[in-house]
Amino acid sequence: MDCQTRPNTQTPRSMSLGLPGIRSRLLLSFFLLAGLIVFFGGASLWVMERTGKAHIAELQDQKLLLQTIKANQMQHLALLKLKNNWPTYPSNEREAILDETRQRQQQIITTLSQFTLAAKEYDEALALGQQLSVMSGQPLRAPHMTGMISAIDNLSLRLSGIGLTHLDAQAQKNSKSLMQTLLWLVLGSLALIVLSQTVAWAVLGRHLLKPLLQTSHKLSELAEQNFGGNSPNAVNRETLKINHALLSLEAQMSALTSEQQQDELTGLYNRRSFNQLLKQAWHKAVVKQHRIGLLLIQSDQAIASETLLHLAQRLLDFDVSGEHFLARLQQSQLALLLPDRDPEACIRIAQSLNQFVLAANLRAKAQSPRLTVSIGVANIQPVRQLGWDTLVFQAEEALLSAQNRGGNCSAGANQ
């Protein structure tokens, strides 16, 4: 008997599903992948939201502490001014100054009550508040305020130490939180990749991609026969489109980075960029043992955005030799960072700036006097034991001193 070989007519499982079966597998894979992405995205947002809220709360505490330190310094200046000018002030003006110091002291007490690290400082602030409450502006002779002024100075020093301790603790906590968040993102990303690859192969690879690859191979052979081995022009056009899209995306990313570093109104460095520049200059000065200077520039009059823009443009025209950075910190306050400058050079630049702004003949309004500025000057030899924000604190103190002199002048941190 002749044996006849029967042809193999078995259809592969992937092809036997038919179009409805492949469609159902595609829908299943889509919902599985979408569910994984939504779950991972939601979990990531929850982790980042929790971390962000904790970080915002810590920043609020730090802001309150800095405001308390500034208020305490203003108490020192107010009492010192009252002590030196007691006989020349009428009694009602003395009472007004005392009322202002009492209100400010009550704000200090209220803020310190929220910090467990400042229990001793809270008691001292409370004692100072009690002394202020019984002080009267009626006597012709000034009461004894030397002890209070000395106590306020000591309180400022301790509050600064608490602020540094709080910053260190916050930095450690943020570092730990960042590591936990990164670990979560890495583990979640790995899990998502593994699951998505598994689903993709189980659902798409076996039943769709494999037949498509076989079809693609057949089409490639057909193209080789029809085009003589040359690639169609459509492929080149698509490649050019992709290249143009990548170049456009790169340009958009560069523009976004520039916007994040600049102040929207003036085009100067913003507060975030200023802090980064100050940190870099500070560490560089520590290594090279150079001094570093900072000028805080504040208009003496209330000015609109247009006037502030004109002032910023004028300051950009001011001739400052050597490395320097001009930034807008807040509202009408500008900062000029001067790396590798000695104190005398910083004072000279500040005095020249006062004259330069006055000569610019800028006016807040049409009929108002010429615009003037107060400048606080700070200059430090950075060391590793000090934080870079020490320079900012000293410049703020000097700026307050210049404003108390009547404005249109500059003052050093130790003047």
UniProtKB/TrEMBL annotation:
<feature type="transmembrane region" description="Helical">
    <location>
        <begin position="26"/>
        <end position="47"/>
    </location>
</feature>
<dbReference type="GO" id="GO:1902201">
    <property type="term" value="P:negative regulation of bacterial-type flagellum-dependent cell motility"/>
</dbReference>
<dbReference type="Pfam" id="PF00990">
    <property type="entry name" value="GGDEF"/>
</dbReference>
<dbReference type="GO" id="GO:0043709">
    <property type="term" value="P:cell adhesion involved in single-species biofilm formation"/>
</dbReference>
<feature type="transmembrane region" description="Helical">
    <location>
        <begin position="182"/>
        <end position="204"/>
    </location>
</feature>
<dbReference type="GO" id="GO:0005886">
    <property type="term" value="C:plasma membrane"/>
</dbReference>
<protein>
    <recommendedName>
        <fullName>diguanylate cyclase</fullName>
        <ecNumber>2.7.7.65</ecNumber>
    </recommendedName>
</protein>
<dbReference type="InterPro" id="IPR050469">
    <property type="entry name" value="Diguanylate_Cyclase"/>
</dbReference>
<feature type="domain" description="GGDEF">
    <location>
        <begin position="290"/>
        <end position="415"/>
    </location>
</feature>
<keyword id="KW-0812">Transmembrane</keyword>
<dbReference type="InterPro" id="IPR029787">
    <property type="entry name" value="Nucleotide_cyclase"/>
</dbReference>
<keyword id="KW-1133">Transmembrane helix</keyword>
<dbReference type="InterPro" id="IPR043128">
    <property type="entry name" value="Rev_trsase/Diguanyl_cyclase"/>
</dbReference>
<dbReference type="InterPro" id="IPR000160">
    <property type="entry name" value="GGDEF_dom"/>
</dbReference>
<keyword id="KW-0472">Membrane</keyword>
<dbReference type="GO" id="GO:0052621">
    <property type="term" value="F:diguanylate cyclase activity"/>
</dbReference>
